[in-house]
TrEMBL record:
GO CC aspect terms: plasma membrane
Keyword Transmembrane helix (UniProt): yes
NCBIfam families: ATPase_P-type
Organism from which the protein derives: Aegilops tauschii subsp. strangulata
Keywords assigned: Magnesium, Membrane, Transmembrane, Transmembrane helix
Keyword flag Magnesium: yes
InterPro entries xref list: ATPase_P-typ_cyto_dom_N (IPR023299), HAD-like_sf (IPR036412), HAD_sf (IPR023214), P_typ_ATPase (IPR001757)
Compartments where found: Membrane
Primary site of residence: membrane
Transmembrane segments: none
Name recorded for this polypeptide: Cation-transporting P-type ATPase C-terminal domain-containing protein
GO molecular function, one term: ATP hydrolysis activity
Pfam families reported in the protein's UniProt record: Hydrolase
Source taxon at top rank: Eukaryota
Length: 204
């Protein structure tokens, strides 16, 4: 059964669907604290699976053309995301960030944990080749920016969360999102994209 569930998750990921599972467990009332309820962690073992859904977050119109414009101008677009690698790869294909030739290189697509655990020298060596980083943390984004800058690149970063602030600040050009962006992200950026659209980033 585990293999069937994993296959279903992998199939959704490869179709650029973000997979969410729903499960429950029976909990005795005595297990639930009366105080500090906000600090109590729900049990995460012995769960009964209810079902799974795949959520599609399609590329916005014009993003693929904007990515091609960047490429033609000599600007390499990279995707750094918390999504798993298969989902990130599928979305990158849709947006034109990846092509079939890119997949042949192992260092083109990398997991954040792998990049994070490399030495500083090793990160510099692979930084140029990385196009998609999945399962990444905000700190992985910062490490990539730092590695690229040490290689002599001019780096622009987009972000919207508070955790993106270090990478936005470290970048040569930090671009935060005007709608979904937190105040911390906006304060750490050089430019605010009012409509949260990548095509507007290219216009800038």
């Amino acid at each position: 059964q585990y293999n069937e569930l994993k296959r279903s998750i992998d199939d959704m990921a490869m179709s650029s669907l973000r997979c969410i599972a729903f499960a429950y467990c029976t909990c005795e009332l005595t297990m639930v604290p009366r105080e500090d309820l906000d600090k109590w962690q729900l049990p995460d073992d012995n769960l009964t699976l209810l079902g799974m859904v795949g959520i599609k977050d399609p590329c916005r119109p014009g993003v693929r053309d904007a990515v091609q414009l960047c490429s033609a101008a000599g600007v390499k677009v990279r995707m750094v995301t918390g999504d798993n690698v298969e989902t990130a790869k599928a979305i990158a294909f849709e947006c034109g960030i990846l092509n079939a030739k890119d997949v042949a290189s192992e260092t083109t697509i990398i997991e954040g944990k792998v990049f994070r655990e490399m030495s500083e020298t090793a990160r510099e060596e692979v930084a140029d080749k990385i196009t998609v980083m999945g399962r990444s943390s905000p700190n992985d984004k910062l490490l990539l920016v730092q590695a690229l800058k040490r290689k002599g690149h001019v780096v622009a970063v987009t972000g919207d969360g508070t955790n993106d602030a270090p990478a936005l600040h470290e970048a040569d050009i930090g671009l935060s999102m005007g709608i979904s962006g937190t105040e911390v992200a906006k304060e750490s950026s050089d430019i605010i994209i009012l409509d949260d659209d990548f095509t507007s980033v290219v216009k800038v």
